[in-house]
UniProtKB/TrEMBL annotation:
GO terms for cellular component: cytosol. Zn(2+) binds at C135, C137, C145. 5-aminolevulinate 2 binds at S295, Y334. It catalyses: 2 5-aminolevulinate = porphobilinogen + 2 H2O + H(+). InterPro entries: ALAD, ALAD_AS, Aldolase_TIM. The active site is at K215 (schiff-base intermediate with substrate), K269 (schiff-base intermediate with substrate). This is Delta-aminolevulinic acid dehydratase. Pathway: Porphyrin-containing compound metabolism; protoporphyrin-IX biosynthesis; coproporphyrinogen-III from 5-aminolevulinate: step 1/4. GO terms for biological process: protoporphyrinogen IX biosynthetic process. Homooctamer. Keywords: Heme biosynthesis, Lyase, Magnesium, Metal-binding, Porphyrin biosynthesis, Zinc. One of its GO terms (molecular function) is porphobilinogen synthase activity. Residues 1-27 are annotated as: Disordered.
Length: 346
């Protein structure tokens, strides 16, 4: 009598007439194989560390952004040096002045807090890439990105062209302090062209411009405004930052204008809710592209991790990897130091 295979083996044994030849799992079997065929890379030197520099001595943790501090110049240099040790070779500076006024004069003061920080960073860490956020909102008493036109009780709009002159002046001051890259974030029309002209007129032909080309009027900026003390005292920024539901055409138009005016980098901000826009900008332009993993995105992960809801390490690396996969060449992220450490440990 011919023996029969057990029924379980009969049901699961592949048919010889139609062999299963495509097995994607073959390339996922070991960590080394997965690394060998990985399409998207994520490295510490692709991350940009934000630094909030204030006038007060020492440092103070930002309550809405656990693990991020306002720091004096000395602590900021120490934090940047630690980043360099981990492979993070770029920082972006945000200033919190002790005094503000209607024109944001602290932004373009030769002795402004970020100007002093940059000089010290370049003295102690000459290989570090120093990027300046170039805006007025942290320095104005009203929290907007330029001088205001007042109209009626509580109503105001930013004077675009008056703002351009002050932003260009700020960029030149930052270049004198040692900026490698100027990153204008004020969302004023003609801003990149005004900065390029001012830099060139003052001999800073080699100072690059990282344009916040595609910057949305996003709800994800809340913790940053706590950190930089830059919330508008009246109104909002919806008239000059982009409509979150504006679509692709507006994003591509803004990027195209900044390319024509002399931008060296383009940026999409925020990142996670706009990965489709990031991909579209990547497909249409060949300049280096930066994603800004903003404060609200950071805070959500931190709070969820502290509550035991998410695995912080896995979520951060997955999110940053998604930004790279969507087309970002570099990422500004408050997770930079943690992510760099995790990548080194992997």
């Amino acid at each position: 009598m011919t023996s029969r295979l057990p029924e379980s083996r009969q049901n699961h044994e592949p048919s010889t007439s139609s062999p299963l030849t495509e097995r994607p799992r073959r390339l996922r079997r070991t960590r080394a194989l997965r690394a060998l065929v990985r399409e998207t890379s994520l490295r510490p030197d692709q991350l940009i560390l934000p630094l909030f520099v204030h006038e007060s001595p020492g440092e103070a943790e930002i309550s809405s952004m656990p693990g991020v501090w306002r720091q004096d110049v000395t602590r900021a240099v120490e934090r940047a040096a630690h980043g360099q040790e981990l492979g993070v070779s770029s920082v972006v500076l945000f200033g919190i002045p002790s005094e503000k006024d209607e024109l944001g004069s602290g932004a373009y003061s030769e002795e402004g807090v970020v100007q002093r920080a940059a000089r010290e960073l370049k003295r102690q860490l000459p290989e570090l890439t120093v990027i300046f956020d170039t805006c007025l909102c942290e320095y104005t008493s009203h929290g907007h990105c330029g001088p205001l036109h007042l109209h009626g009780p509580g109503g105001a709009t930013v004077d675009n062209d008056a703002a351009l002159a002050l932003i260009a002046r700020t960029a030149v001051s930052q270049a004198r302090a040692g900026a490698d890259v100027i990153a204008p974030s004020a969302a004023m029309d003609g801003m990149v062209g005004a900065i390029r002209s001012a830099l060139d007129a003052n001999g800073f032909h080699d100072t690059a411009i990282m344009s916040y080309a595609v910057k949305y009027a996003s709800a994800f900026y809340g913790p940053f405004r706590d950190a930089a003390d830059s919330a508008p005292a009246m109104g909002d920024r919806a008239s000059y930052q982009m409509d979150p539901l504006g679509g692709y055409r507006e994003a591509l138009r803004e990027a195209r204008l900044d390319v024509a005016q002399g931008a060296d980098f383009l940026m999409v901000k925020p990142a996670l809710a706009y990965l489709d826009v990031l991909r579209s900008v990547r497909e249409h332009f060949d300049l280096p592209l930066v994603a800004y993993n903003v404060s609200g995105e950071y805070a959500m992960v931190k709070m969820a991790a502290r509550a035991g809801i998410l695995d912080e390490r896995r979520v951060v690396l997955e999110s940053l990897g998604g930004m790279r996969r969507a087309g970002a060449d570099a990422i500004i992220t408050y997770h930079a130091l943690d992510a760099a450490r995790w990548l080194r440990e992997a």
